[in-house]
Design brief:
two-stranded antiparallel ribbon; about 65% helix; Arc Repressor Mutant, subunit A
Length: about 260
């Protein structure tokens, strides 16, 4: 694969690991990988960003930091040795993490990870989203595409019919992100969309591992479906109020026992 794609083996290994974590690939007993299910049964969301090398590494480093595998302060030399990365690629990864507030550059060649998963940071993130998301929905008004709402309904209903497994965690997150970003995109305000996209990147790197159980999946999907129903009925103000309640509940769950 490395020869065919004209890249080194490092990004190939990272991409394959990324696809395996998403449930697209599975290991063979004799070695190698194969599709976990027929290609036409794989959801599009399971592929999203799979080929983006920087995002793969950003997700991996964020998870390693949150698990404690990485210390809060690291040097570039330590990271290059740990992940077998060259300095140019490592700097691109770190700079992207810095864009979403996950790391800060220290004097010299050191980097400091921000405590983005502590209660204060989680509360700030939800407070920010509570301000801009309902307001963006009101701004969007009746401009939300009915076809997009129908597709969102289909994806949520499909998610609720699937037997929950850890392999679905990434698909769930991407569907959730598409829903929230789509509502803001309908406002036509590029600055609001950029703001929520930054929040999505930050959440993507730190929340690909679902730890709230299958019942919470159902609750979240049902709340999204109710918002969709209100928008389809033209009840934008009701939908905005439901979105605010949805974010408040998600905040409570996120700040609960960890």
């Amino acid at each position: 694969m490395a020869r065919r794609l004209h890249v080194s083996r490092t990004p190939v290994r990272a991409a394959l690991k990324h696809l395996a974590e998403r449930g697209v690939l599975t290991a063979l007993p004799e070695g190698g990988l194969t599709l976990a299910q027929p290609l036409d049964q794989v959801a599009d969301a399971q592929f999203s960003s799979a080929g983006v090398e920087i995002d793969v590494w950003c997700s991996r480093m964020a998870r390693d930091r949150l698990s404690g595998a990485l210390p809060p302060q690291v040097s570039e030399a330590d990271l290059m040795r740990r992940y077998d990365l060259g300095r140019p690629l490592l700097l691109r990864i770190l700079n992207k993490l810095a864009e979403v507030g996950l790391v800060d550059r220290l004097p010299g060649h050191g980097w400091l990870f921000s405590p983005v998963n502590d209660p204060a940071a989680i509360a700030e993130s939800y407070a920010f989203r509570r301000i801009i998301e309902p307001a963006s929905l009101l701004e969007a008004g009746g401009r939300i595409d009915p076809a997009w709402l129908a597709e969102m309904r289909r994806r949520h209903e499909d998610m609720m019919t699937r037997t929950w497994s850890e392999a679905l965690a990434v698909s769930l997150f991407e569907m959730n992100a598409d829903f929230h970003e789509g509502l803001i995109a309908a406002s036509g305000n590029r600055y609001l969309l950029l703001a929520i996209q930054q929040q999505t990147r930050l959440r993507r790197y730190t929340n690909y591992e679902w730890r709230y159980g299958s019942e919470r999946v159902k609750v979240s999907c049902l709340q999204h479906l109710e918002i969709i129903a209100r928008l389809e009925a033209g009840e934008v103000e009701v939908a905005a109020a439901l979105l605010r309640q949805h974010l408040d509940l998600a905040r409570t769950v996120s700040l609960g026992p960890r």
